[in-house]
Amino acid sequence: MSDYLQRTLEEFHACTLLSVQAFDPVGRILGQFGLDGTEHAVRCPVRTQSISSVMEKLDQNKERSSYYIGSCANVQGPRDMRCGEVSFIVCKIDPRMPELGAFAFWPGRTMDGSFQETPVSVIEHLVGLLQNLARANLLGSTDEKTDVSSYGHHVRRAIAYLEQNLTINATLETASEELSLSKSYLCRIFRKETGITFSDYANALRITRSKILLAETNLHLLDIALTVGFNDQSYFNRVFKKTTGVTPLVFRREYAGAQAKNNVRIA
């Protein structure tokens, strides 16, 4: 299991005492926490469900906070007890990158043996917590973690538009249309406040996301290029090498080697 996933699962369980599991997009288990080593653990109720079909349902909902609530009857609980029907929640690891897979979390038994319910009113907050932990652990210290709170209203909206539409090749022109601003005005204030052009900022975001996909998936370089918003692999290769000093393929190999030795974070 990737180091960032291990930290995320441990931190989420420590904050919520909920059992949590991570899956790749086709339903293979990537890691888990809170299932073993405790007499109050409840076995994963998602095992009898198809994570891939749940992921498809999530893909149909483009909302960033989307999640899926399911249930499974006759789940194995502490000391092989049967817990009856157990509800579980599934959400994407990162709503912007479904290629990373999904999380599932569910309640367990409390110390007195009663069942620990998860109120519907807090599910969205739990999903947000889990995804924010994953994002923080996955990105490490990268350009995408830049604090944008000091930027003006229009620039913050432009960055939000970029983050949500990066895969469809968002441009200064499409952003200015979306924000009802003139192209020249947005270009001027964006560079003044961020210190770089809109295009360079977009490419920095794309490179950050491509590094994640290079490190955490087996996707082909062309698929990664298209996924993060580059039109072709050769241009992706040039921008990646200009930004990082190495080609995408070299980065993947070096990261894999370092991860095997030290469980390093993406930097």
Quaternary state of this entry equals single chain
* CATH level 4 superfamily of the largest domain: GAF domain
Separation, N- and C-terminal Cα atoms: 18 Å
User: What is the typical, i.e. mean, pLDDT?
Assistant: 79
Strand content: 5-15%
| Radius of gyration using CA atoms only | 21 Å
Number of separate structural domains: 2
Shape: globular
Counting helices, strands and paired strands, the structural category is alpha+beta
By DSSP, the count of extended strands is 5
Tell me which CATH architecture of the largest domain applies here.
2-Layer Sandwich
Give the SSE order as H and E letters.
HEEHEEEHHHHHHHH
- The CATH topology label of the largest domain is Beta-Lactamase
- CATH top level of the largest domain is Alpha Beta
Number of helical stretches of at least 4 residues: 10
Tell me the helix content: 40-55%
Strand order of the largest sheet: 2-1-5-4-3
Largest sheet: 5 strands, antiparallel
In the predicted model, the low-confidence regions spanning at least 5 consecutive residues are: 37-42, 74-83, 263-267
Pfam families: HTH_18
GO molecular function: DNA-binding transcription factor activity; sequence-specific DNA binding
InterPro entries: Homeodomain-like_sf (IPR009057), HTH_AraC (IPR018060), HTH_AraC-typ_CS (IPR018062), Tscrpt_reg_AraC-type_HTH (IPR020449)
Protein name: Transcriptional regulator, AraC family
